[in-house]
Design a protein that fits this description.
Elements: E1 6-8, H1 9-20, E2 25-27, H2 34-42, E3 47-49, H3 53-67, E4 72-75, H4 77-92, E5 98-103, H5 119-123, E6 129-132, H6 139-151, E7 158-163, H7 164-168, E8 170-172, H8 196-208, E9 212-216, H9 218-222, H10 226-236, E10 240-242, E11 257-260, H11 268-275, E12 278-282, E13 303-308, H12 311-315, E14 322-325, H13 328-335, H14 343-374, H15 380-389, E15 396-400, H16 403-417, E16 424-426, H17 437-447, E17 453-458, H18 459-465, H19 469-475, E18 480-485, H20 490-499, H21 515-522, E19 525-529, H22 532-545, E20 549-554, H23 561-572
Parallel strand pairs: 2-3, 2-4, 4-5, 5-7, 6-7, 9-10, 9-12, 10-11, 12-13, 13-14, 15-16, 15-17, 17-18, 18-20, 19-20
Antiparallel strand pairs: 1-8
Helix pairs in contact: 1-2, 1-6, 3-4, 3-17, 10-13, 15-16, 20-23
Length: 576
């Protein structure tokens, strides 16, 4: 009889993730996690050592969003505290990241053990599932439970805590595998199919409608249904809007895509939503961005229908007139059976989008002409448009910051109208967490190595997460970072100037930081750009360099429409 093979708990953990098909793990290597890292090494799994745990979390989140497959963030107990902001960002976008803590010893729990924190309790409100593994025999079981929680229903991040004494202890390599499920590999995610009677009622509402619109959200992306959305909307001529802060569902060049369902960033959406007699919200939440489904955002006369793939999502949408539990893809399949089309209504929204684009083109041309005449710095919208002008179809664009984010939302809609076909767009999610840009750009580059990836970041956003640029050099992932450098937290200072009685701003300025020189010092390419005419040649040189590059572009601060609206709103009300 052969001897039973013994391995450490951390190695069992790694093998369990290998069985699930995990392709990307991110960490800041620490002693508490060494057995797991040994296991990842033995399994020949990719592990990226990051300069900070928050960076590791954002990289795991970015890879998960692009690939729509869970990535792992592995940290120690104090590192878990550093990773909490990344957990918050993943929670806002319902990104199924697997966070793992190598935590303080179980044997002396509650006695002030080395680096002891209650990581399970801290993670609980920011995850779908947070648990401590207290028995090494059940490591594989809990990985399976966490994976299932992360990927099924309404997806989202999860957290596993593996105490250091279990991490280092030895167990039978087949520990816990004598019970079902014997096969713990990744399986297809269960989908909710619509109740025929409920679906029939909604189909009747659609057929009776004269002015329907679709607003798409998280659920469409995570169910991989965006191609079905585009096919149904294009065939039936139903205009599509996207929930703000969400992963883009359709490219801005798509005929069916009109813009964000945001009255300030894309004001034609107000006309469409207020005139619509039927609003189909698919994979969305009736949260603050949708004014919880209430007027004046969604009028009382409109029939509001929410279609969601899980009961959890439907619980967020109790304000809907009609609800349907259905996988978004299954609903879009049913939608294509409708024989009616809405060409005149669809064409009206296309016409309005064209007018909106032309108005912005006229405005930015006038602004840029004045910039040149008066020697002013570049307008941030002009910068965003100039960046896209140098990008090829299929390249990825990431933006990060306050006004930088919002101006580039406008810019991508304008460029998309003119036919720009980006490979993908990424940006901070529902919580507007600054500093994710570099990590998200690296994720896009790692998963799309043959495409250029450009990050447009505010200077404040880069200072929040710029340390992660070291991973670009370490991993050989050249990205282009364009810094919209206005010398401070411009989004906040502009709100202060509108709010403070003296009309000034306070505690929001930065010194003149040579971001380009920082990249040169790390071995990359860097250039300072102070005039618009310098930008295009500099961008071309950066792309041709093959290196991680920084263009430090001096721009002027211009308040974006949404920041102006938000500051007015906060000034008039004690709460949002």
């Amino acid at each position: 009889m052969s001897d039973v093979q013994k391995i450490r708990g951390g190695q069992i953990l790694a093998r369990a993730f290998k069985e699930k098909g995990v392709e990307n793990t991110f960490t800041l290597a620490g002693g508490f996690c060494n057995p797991a890292l040994e296991g990842f090494m033995e399994c020949q799994m990719s592990v990226v050592n990051c300069p900070h745990e928050q960076v590791a979390g954002h990289l795991a989140d970015g890879h998960t969003r692009v690939s729509r497959k869970p990535a792992v963030c592995l940290v120690g107990p104090e590192g878990f505290a550093n990773a909490v902001p990344a957990m918050l960002e993943a929670w806002g976008e319902r990104s199924p990241v697997i966070f793992v803590t190598g935590s303080s010893t179980l044997k002396r729990q509650g006695s002030g053990g080395f680096k002891e924190i209650d990581d399970v309790a801290i993670a609980a409100p920011l995850t779908k599932y947070s648990v401590q593994i207290t028995d090494g025999e059940r490591i594989s079981e809990f990985v399976d439970r966490a994976w299932t929680a992360a990927t099924t229903g309404y997806p989202g991040p999860v957290h596993l805590a593996l105490p250091v004494d279990i991490m280092f202890s030895s167990f039978d390599e087949k520990a816990g595998r004598h019970e079902r499920p014997f096969n713990r590999s990744d399986k297809p995610v269960p989908r909710a199919w619509p109740d025929p009677a409920a679906l029939s009622h909604i189909m009747a509402l659609i057929n009776q409608s004269e002015r329907p619109i679709i607003i798409g959200g998280h659920g469409v992306w995570w169910s991989k249904s965006e191609s079905k959305l585009e096919a149904a909307a294009t065939t039936l001529r139903i205009p599509v809007f996207n929930v703000p802060y969400n992963q883009k569902l359709l490219g801005e060049e798509s005929e069916a895509y009109m813009g964000l369902a945001d009255f300030h960033q894309y004001h034609p959406s107000k006309q469409a939503i207020h005139e619509a007699d039927l609003i189909l919200m698919v994979g969305c939440r009736l949260d603050n961005q949708m004014n919880f489904g209430n007027p004046p955002f969604i009028p009382e006369h409109s029939k509001l229908v929410c279609i969601n793939g899980s009961h959890e999502e439907l619980e967020n949408n109790v304000g809907a007139d009609v609800q349907l539990l259905s996988d978004p893809g299954a609903f879009f399949d049913a939608l294509t059976t409708v024989s009616k089309t809405w060409s005149n209504w669809f064409d009206l929204q296309r016409e309005r989008r064209g007018i909106w684009v032309n108005e912005w083109k006229t405005h930015i041309a006038e602004e840029t002409a004045t910039d040149l005449k008066e020697g002013r710095k570049m307008h941030p919208l002009q910068l965003g448009l100039d960046v896209q002008a140098e990008m090829a179809d299929g390249d990825w664009l990431v933006f990060d910051g306050g006004n930088t984010h919002f101006w580039n939302e406008i810019g991508v809609n304008m460029a998309g109208w003119d036919g720009k076909k980006l490979g993908g767009i990424m940006h901070p999610g529902n919580y507007s967490l600054l500093g994710v840009g570099v990590a998200f750009a690296l994720s896009a580059k790692n998963l799309n190595p043959n495409k250029n990836v450009v990050l447009i970041t505010g200077d404040g956003a880069f200072l929040s997460g710029g340390l992660s640029i070291e991973a670009a050099f370490q991993e050989g992932l050249p990205i282009i970072v364009v810094v919209d450098n206005n010398g401070g937290l411009d989004c906040i200072s502009q709100q202060q100037e509108r709010l403070f009685a003296n009309g000034q701003h306070f505690a929001t300025d930065f010194r003149d930081i040579p971001f380009h020189a920082m990249f040169e010092g790390l071995g990359g390419h860097g250039e300072l750009v102070t005039k618009r005419e310098e930008f295009a040649p500099a961008m071309q040189r950066a792309l041709a360099s093959g290196k991680t590059a920084c263009l430090n572009v001096k721009c002027r601060g211009v308040i974006s429409p949404i920041v102006a609206a938000t500051s007015d709103k906060r000034d008039k009300a004690s709460i949002e």
